[in-house]
Amino acid sequence: MSVKRVKSLLFYEAAGTPSGRIVRTLIEKGPLSAREIGLSTGLAKSTVSTALAGLRAVSMVVDRPPNRQNHGVGRPATTVSLNPQAGTCVGLLIGAEHMQLIVADVSHAVLFDLTLLHGIDPPVEAVPGKAAVMLAQAYAELNLSRDTLLGVGIAVGGPVNPMEIGRASGR
């Protein structure tokens, strides 16, 4: 299984395929049973089964033990999740007084969480360099190649003046 394969299922060409729809659903919702995947994607039971077999064959998904807390009568359903080794994602929060970097695998497990306090309103030019150092530190401590990186989400916090909303767009 390669990061390239995971990325290929995230783009538009594959997004409409059963495998692509299942991968996207697992990214958004985390571990699910085959029944829950069918309900979430609208795919038929047989289509879900066939697509999951293909995804298992290339180690894209793995079976997880059933969640015994949320079941009724009978044997609990096995859940499926994306293989944690399929890749990593990074979240970066840039706040007025701190930066926070989180690395998670595709099964939603947080692998690394680092907060760096940098004082009030640091020079904007310093932020990318600090983020790069934090990212390098995370992947070094995790002993992971940055080739596993699938994507980065960045949030920039800032004060919002309700009197200024709409002025930039001319409204």
Q: What is the number of E strands?
A: 7
Helical fraction equals 25-40%
Contiguous runs where pLDDT drops below 50 for at least 5 residues: none
- From N to C, what is the helix and strand string? HHHEHHEEEEEHE
User: Rg to the nearest angstrom?
Assistant: 20 Å
Mean pLDDT over the residues: 84
Gross morphology: elongated
Strand order of the largest sheet: 6-5-4-7
Largest pleated sheet: 4 strands, mixed
Cα end-to-end separation: 50 Å
SS summary, helix count: 6
As a percent range, the share of strand residues is: 15-25%
Structure classification:
alpha+beta
Q: Outline of this structure?
A:
This protein is of the alpha+beta class.
List keywords for this structure.
alpha+beta, four-stranded mixed beta sheet, three-stranded antiparallel beta sheet, 7 strands
Provide an overview of this structure.
- The protein is built from 6 helices and 7 strands, in the order αααβααβββββαβ.
- With 171 residues, it is α+β, with helices and mostly antiparallel strands.
- The strands form 2 sheets. It has a 4-stranded mixed beta sheet. Strands 1-3-2 form a 3-stranded antiparallel beta sheet.
Helix and strand topology:
Elements: H1 3-10, H2 12-15, H3 18-29, E1 32-33, H4 34-41, H5 45-57, E2 61-64, E3 79-82, E4 88-94, E5 98-105, E6 110-117, H6 126-141, E7 149-156
Parallel strand pairs: 4-7
Antiparallel strand pairs: 1-3, 2-3, 4-5, 5-6
Helix pairs in contact: 4-5
